[in-house]
Every structure is written in C-alpha cells, then in structure tokens.
Amino acid sequence: MNGIVLFDGECNFCDQSVQFIIKRDPQGYFSFASLQSEVGQDLLKKYEIPADTDSFVLIEDGRAYTKSSAGLRVCKHLKGAWKALRLFAIVPKFVRDAAYEIFAKNRYKWFGKKDSCMLPSKDIRKRFL
C-alpha cells in the first residue's frame, strides 16, 4: 500500500509542500487529503489521531506518523538527494518535534493562510482522496 499524506489545506506552506512532494514523486507513491476534508477526518479517527490536529500526517504500512517523523519518512521516497534528510532520524524525536512545533506555530504568520483548499490540476487530481 502506498503512503497517504494528510496536510493542512488552509496553509500556504503546506500547499507548497504537497506540490514539492508531487514534483519529486513521479511514481505516484503518495496520495493526499487535507486534514479538513471528510476523508482526512475519517483517517484521523481510524488512526486515533485527535481531530483537531494540525500536524503533517503520513499514513504508511498501517501506521500513522506525525510531525518530524512523518516528514522524514516522506523524504525516504522522494527522488533525488532529499532521501539524505532521513539521516536526521538520528536526532532524538523530542528535539526534532520541538523544532517542528516552533515552525508549525508560526507557519501562518510566515507563509499565510488560505480560505479554502487548493484545487489540483486535472493530471494530479487522481492522487487526492
């Protein structure tokens, strides 16, 4: 089974992150759903993640990963040198997640917020759940 990325559909940075992943995932390993969508909310429930979470979430191999762990696992599947970022997995999770939390708390201030989720182009729409 392929990975499913749940993202904040209102966050400009998150939208750009999804575009970044799509560009470096030519095999289409990842599917996407916004946290705000019905599919996203159903997956959060299924994997017992609080419905009000605003973390990046990766569902892979029957498990849900959040925050820095999700990001590092995504890098493992990307084309190019991005795979090397997996080396940061040696940094203790509490340190990685603390840095993630600082970034996450400021992402709207730094990158802005949308009123609605992006509409994917026709050629990548099939990757959105």
UniProtKB/TrEMBL annotation:
| InterPro entries assigned | DCC1-like, DCC_oxidoreductase
Pfam families given for it?
DCC1-like
Q: Which superkingdom is the protein from?
A: Bacteria
Kindly provide the name given to this protein in its UniProt entry. Answer: Thiol-disulfide oxidoreductase
Q: Which organism is it from?
A: Pontibacillus salipaludis
* Gene name for this UniProt entry: yuxK
